[in-house]
Amino acid sequence: MSNFGILGKLEFLQNLASVFVSHIPGPIIHNIDKYFAIKKSMYLVALDETDGDYLEFGIYKGSSFCHAIRCARSFSGISPILSRMKFYGFDVFGRGFDHLDESESHKFYVSDNFEADYKKVSKRIARAASKAQSYRLVKGLFEDTLKGDISDLGVSKCSVMFIDSDTYSSACLALNYSKTSIQSGTIIILDDFFSYSGDPDQGVSKAFEEFKYKESYSSRQIFTYGMGGVVHVLKKVKK
Fold first, then answer.
1. Which of 53, 75, 146, 171 makes an SS bond possible with 46, Cβ 3.0 to 4.6 Å?
2. Cα end-to-end span (Å), the chain
3. What pLDDT sits at residue 29?
4. Domain that holds residue 226
5. Is residue 11 in some structural domain?
6. In what order do the strands lie in the sheet with 217-225?
7. What are the distances in angstroms from CA 99 to CA 38, 223, 235?
8. Cα–Cα separations (whole angstroms), residue 191 to 82, 148, 163
């Protein structure tokens, strides 16, 4: 007799579960899991009282950005630093992938899949933020907007960074632009970490490893999420 008793004989329940899960669209699974990743990150920041702002590179239609605002609000009772957190979002809101170098080409990372209406996104975020949270959207190609240093926007510390711009070059620009705000305890959410068939010498993964080496950081993976997202916490390494 099976150690699982009658449950081992109820194949229809297993088949039902399989059919249900197999029909859930991949993007839905990824986005729901991403929401949990953002919430967990905000919770850890609140527990450790890691002071700083929220930076998101590649906000598309604003879903993740709005969710980050809501999560910070919900955890503000744990730590007042979340009520002081400011939110900064960067996106071209247009055909950013048209400018990719051939070495970064990917059949999914094309502009037709990621165009968004800036006005609609702005209104959506304004509703989520209400008057409680301060935020700023920076519109334009990263090559044009991520120049100089993020301190020019008034950002001195970053507690949570979300890089959802998919490619090596864009991730490099985001990390380099933000480097003076990154600190020990900064949590970095890296979407599409295993793109390009998992090649560590391409995409966001390559940019992240190069940044750590150049700026003397080590990292610990906290968890993974969705269809290839990874979350790390950084620590400055003494030279």
1. 75
2. 62
3. 92
4. 25-236
5. no
6. 134-139, 86-91, 53-57, 158-163, 187-190, 229-236, 217-225
7. 29, 32, 33
8. 23, 24, 6
> How does DSSP assign 14-31, residue by residue?
HHHHHHHHHTS-HHHHHH
Cβ neighbours of residue 49 closer than 8 Å, sequence gap 6 or more? 79, 81
190 falls within a domain: yes
Strand partners of residue 88: 55, 136
N residues, the chain: 239
H or E stretch covering 161? strand 158-163
CATH number at residue 210: 3.40.50.150
**Under a CB-based contact definition with an 8 Å cutoff, are residues 196 and 106 in contact?**
yes
**Residue 97 placed within a domain:** yes
- The DSSP line for 106-120 is -SS--GGGT---HHH
Return the pLDDT at 106: 60
Q: What is the DSSP letter of 167?
A: S
Phi, psi of 87 (to 5 degrees): -120, 130
Rounded Cα–Cα distance for residues 32 and 201 (Å): 28
| Cβ atoms 232, 217 nearer than 8 A | no
pTM of the model: 0.89
Domain count, the chain: 1
Q: Is 2 among the domain residues? A: no
Spatial separation of the C-alpha atoms in residues 175 and 163, rounded to whole Å: 9
Q: One-letter amino acid identity for 51? A: D
- pLDDT surpassing 80 at residue 113: no
